[in-house]
Structures are given as C-alpha cells and as structure tokens.
Design brief:
It contains five helices and six strands, in the order αββααααββββ. By secondary structure, it is an alpha+beta fold. The protein has two domains: about 60 residues, no CATH class; about 140 residues, Nuclear Transport Factor 2, Chain: A (Roll), CATH 3.10.450.230. β1 and β2 form a beta hairpin. The termini are far apart.
Length: about 210
C-alpha cells in the first residue's frame, strides 16, 4: 500500500517537473518570438519597396539630418558651378547666373553687379573666353547655425592664345529655407566672399 503511494507521489513530482519544464520552454519561445518579431517590424518600418517593372526594389527611409551635409555641400558646389561657368555667349551667361543667384543672398548679387559694372562679362564675350570650374572639396561646420562652409575649387580659363589654371577659395554660411524648383536643396548662401583667387599656371596655346 505504501509502495503504491510512494510511486504515485514520485509520478506526481515528475509530472509537475515536466509541466514546469514545458511552461519554461513555452515562455522562452514566446519571448524569443516576440523579440524577433519586434526587430522585424522595426526593420520593415524603415523600408519601402519601389516597383521597377516586375521587380520590387527595397528602399530605406532616413532622416533629413542624415542627408543634411550631403545636400549642403551639393548646394555650395552647384552655386559655384553656375556662378563661375562662363561661355562667350550673353544668353548662356545670363541663364547660368540667374540659377546661381537663386541659391545665394545679396552678397552674391553685389559681386555680380561689380563684375558687370567693370565690364567683366563683356570682355568674356568679346574675347571668346571660356571659363569652367571644378569644385575640389567643401568643408562644412555643422556645429553652428547658420552652417559655415569653405569651398576649394580650381578654375580653368581658356583664351584664344592661352590656358590658365586658377585656385579659388570662398567661404560663407548656409541658412535653411523652403525648397522650390529654383532652389531644390532648401539652402541660401549668405555672407559669401572670396578668400583666394590666384593663378596657378598659364600655358600658351598653339
């Protein structure tokens, strides 16, 4: 009689241990599934898919601050390319400078007015001068606002009888404004000035 009771008690303990083990395993699996599901949901919230034909290409969302420095540098580069790229064509010069002046404040307009008054653009046209620019780098200080920048570039000036390389360094600051078709980056260059504009080399053309 006592032997049967002992066996029943042992079986009950084993059954209780098994039940506890099953509960622990289920709780662990539930916790793991919850964590994996949460991680998957977090990833999918930052992902969208763009349909290209019959393929779905994943695209990832990012904050505007992640692209702030990239857009700011590109804005500065675009301004300099529009302002300093000149062809011996009056209409081409006007179109390029009009695009540039949408990207900067009155400081750039004053430089343009001074050059215009001194006959610079007329001499470009009459002398068949072609001027291009390559922006080498743009240093950006994001710790202050408006953002401060310094632009390093190289100008190439082609005249009928010579070819000149010139070093150009400018600086200014960037203030955020509303985006538009004329200003897609949503920045405005302020207090723009030239720090250095120096000839590096001049070669005679054959």
């Amino acid at each position: 009689m006592f032997t049967k009771i002992k066996h029943i008690d042992t079986a009950f303990q084993q059954l209780r241990s098994l039940a506890l083990w099953v509960i622990v395993c289920c709780f662990s699996m539930l916790t793991t599934a919850f964590l994996l599901g949460y991680r998957l949901i977090s990833r999918t919230q930052d992902r969208i898919y763009v349909l290209a034909g019959s393929q779905a290409i994943p695209a990832f969302a990012s904050s505007t601050r992640d692209n702030l420095s990239v857009e700011a540098r590109h804005h500065v580069a675009c301004f300099h390319q529009y302002f300093f790229t000149l062809d011996p064509d009056e209409n081409a010069i006007k179109r390029s400078l009009q695009k540039a002046l949408y990207l900067a404040d009155i400081t750039a307009k004053r430089v343009y007015d001074d050059l215009q008054e001194n006959g610079f653009y007329s001499s470009v046209i009459s002398g068949n001068v072609n001027q291009t620019i390559q922006v080498d780098s743009v240093q950006l200080d994001e710790d202050v606002y408006p953002l401060k920048f310094r632009c390093f570039a190289t100008q190439q000036i082609v005249r009928p009888k010579s070819f000149t390389n010139r070093r150009l360094i400018t600086e200014g600051q960037l203030r955020q404004i509303s985006r538009s078709d004329n200003n897609p980056h949503g920045f405005l260059i302020e207090r723009w000035k030239t720090i250095l504009n120096q000839d590096l080399s001049t070669q005679t053309r054959n």
